[in-house]
Amino acid sequence: MIYCTQSYNEYTKMSKEKLELEYVIKCSPKVLYNRLSSASGLSEWFADDVVVNGKSYTFMWDGSGQEASLAFRKENQVVRFDWVDEDTYFEFKISKDELTGDVSLLITDFAEEDEIEETSSLWNSQIATLKQVLGS
Questions:
Q1: What is the CATH number of the domain that holds 51?
Q2: pLDDT tens digits, residue range 100-129?
Q3: Rounded distance, CA 87 to CA 84, Å?
Q4: By residue range, what is the domain housing residue 49?
Q5: Could you tell me the pTM of the whole model?
Q6: What is the pLDDT of residue 14?
Q7: How many angstroms separate the Cα of 38 from the Cα of each of 1, 19, 76, 103, 118?
Q8: How confident is the model at residue 55 (pLDDT cuts 50, 70, 90)?
Q9: Alpha-carbon span 35 to 41, nearest angstrom
Q10: What is the DSSP string of the chain?
Q11: Res 5: pLDDT
Q12: Selection from 1, 10, 26, 5 nearest residue 88 by Cα
């Protein structure tokens, strides 16, 4: 499921769309949270490598890094990273349906209007890798 809303990025003076994506993940919130919040967990599916120094996370892709700071986290529920070079963030929320027991991962990210499809496709690919890592 994809939702889009308008956001204004003052740092770059560009309009970005807020993307909200939802995926059903077949594992416990505790196991999923570990893959979303630890350097070793994130490097299994999200980035080639992740270096953590306090609240500073450097995500490495194809030899170049992008820095984010850990804005907040609540164990087994949410992790949010603020990009250092941009006035945007990405966030992982874990929810569990009380009736069915289904665990969902809600991702919030931002993309320029002409990059929404590409960004969504990238997340779909990364989540497919995450599901494979989890055996989901």
A1: 3.30.530.20
A2: 999 999 999 999 989 999 999 999 999 999
A3: 8
A4: 2-134
A5: 0.85
A6: 57
A7: 26, 23, 12, 19, 26
A8: very high
A9: 4
A10: -EEEEEEEETTTTEEEEEEEEEEEE-S-HHHHHHHHHSHHHHHHHT-SEEEEETTEEEEEETTEEEEEEEEEEETTTEEEEEESSSS-EEEEEEEE-TTT--EEEEEEEEEEGGGHHHHHHHHHHHHHHHHHHHT-
A11: 44
A12: 10
- Cα dihedral 10/127/74/48 (nearest 10): -80
Q: What's residue 12's pLDDT?
A: 43
Q: How many domains does the chain have?
A: 1
> Distance between CA atoms of 94 and 75, rounded to whole angstroms?
10
Contact present, 124 and 105 (Cβ < 8 Å): no
Q: Hey, what are 136's tokens?
A: 């989901």
- The two three-digit tokens of residue 108, written as one number: 């919030």
Q: How many CB atoms lie within 10 A of CB 29?
A: 17
**Neighbour tally for 64: CB within 10 Å:** 8
Give the residue among 115, 91, 125, 116 at the shortest CA–CA distance from 105. Answer: 91
Counting residues of the chain whose pLDDT is more than 70, the rounded percentage is 90
